Predict the 3D structure of the following.
Amino acid sequence: MRRFKVWFWLIALSGLVLDLWSKSVAWDFLGCDGGGPGEYLVIDGFFWLRCVENKGGVWGIGQDFTQVLVVVRAILSVGIIIYMALLDPARRRLLWALALVLGGAVGNLHDSAKYGAVRDFLDFLLPVIDYRWPTFNIADSLICVGFGLLVIEMLFDRQHHETQEATTSPATPR
């Protein structure tokens, strides 16, 4: 059980540190606080580093509810920690998923609470369909990967329970 919690915290804290460090480096490199260009072309027509302050949630939804989002992110983060404490140690995929989501959520919570907005800097254009993906950061990536793992865990858990029920249920008389 103890090793289980150590891995959870190691993953979550590593994600958080990587997110905050990458935002700091990008913000300094781009001069996002007013002293620089605010963007840098990495791959022509595809990938830029760009200063974007997102006061809302995912894809900028809820721009007028920054303080509400801070409270919601804090409550969700505490909820993840409580759930982890109650979690069966055998549920490793769920552990990894929750740790990634927590690391990303706390990274974005930090930005919202300290700066009044989340600092985004990864900007991609999908040239085949001429669509600019919403600018994001490492925390957003951690959250998306974590939710992807949650979906996989739910599918595998459901299959496991269905298989278990099929093998342990008594045969029904005809």
